Structures are given as structure tokens and as C-alpha cells.
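Q: what sequence does this backbone want?
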């Protein structure tokens, strides 16, 4: 089985095991340090922002979304409602929240089970 097929099975399993998520627009998710991947960087640069505008290095030397006071720089709160200034261009991890975060906690076990099923 190819890695791409395993990824598709994993995503199907992961997303089908969670209840639908309804965002409360509280902004709590914007307190996560979001690691940027190459496609995220390319998409954000297309908005006219420079790398320095939207990113910074974390304490491990990884490139993450720019943060101010422990929140994403692009978090906007108006009338007590949180929103994203770059919503249409937000990184993959933000798009997948909360499923991506929850799935990362079980990724090892799910992939292990999938690989055993294929054998």
C-alpha cells in the first residue's frame, strides 16, 4: 500500500470519528503556536505579505505563525467575537482545527492499526 493511500485512509478514519465541530469564535485556538509548512508559506506570500509579516522562529528554531502576547498576530476581536484577519489564507493547521490537533494525538495508533490491517 502506498503512503498516499495510507494517508487517505487515516484522514477518513480520523475525520469520521469526530462529531461535527461548531466554532464558538472564542479565539482560544489562536493561542496555539502554529507551525508553518511550505504550502502555508507559499499561500500567505500570495497575499502580498512578506515572510517577516506573518512568521517568526519558535524556541526550537521552527517557523511558526507570528504571535503577539501569546496569540496569533492575525486574531481580531470585535464586540467579543474572535475572527481571523487572513481567514481565506490561514494555514492548514488552522483550517483543520480541532480535528488535526486531536488526530495528532492518536496518529501513531491509527497508522499502526491501518498498517496491521493491510499486512
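A:
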Amino acid at each position: 500500500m502506498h503512503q498516499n493511500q495510507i494517508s487517505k485512509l487515516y484522514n477518513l478514519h480520523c475525520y469520521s470519528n469526530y462529531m461535527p465541530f461548531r466554532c464558538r469564535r472564542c479565539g482560544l485556538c489562536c493561542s496555539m503556536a502554529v507551525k508553518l509548512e511550505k504550502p502555508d508559506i507559499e499561500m500567505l506570500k500570495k497575499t502580498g505579505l512578506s515572510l517577516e509579516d506573518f512568521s517568526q522562529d519558535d524556541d526550537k528554531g521552527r517557523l511558526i505563525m507570528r504571535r503577539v502576547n501569546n496569540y496569533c498576530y492575525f486574531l481580531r476581536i470585535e464586540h467579543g467575537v474572535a475572527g481571523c484577519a487572513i481567514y481565506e489564507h490561514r494555514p492548514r493547521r488552522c483550517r483543520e482545527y480541532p480535528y488535526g490537533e486531536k488526530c495528532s494525538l492518536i496518529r501513531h495508533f491509527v497508522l499502526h492499526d491501518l498498517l496491521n490491517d493491510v499486512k
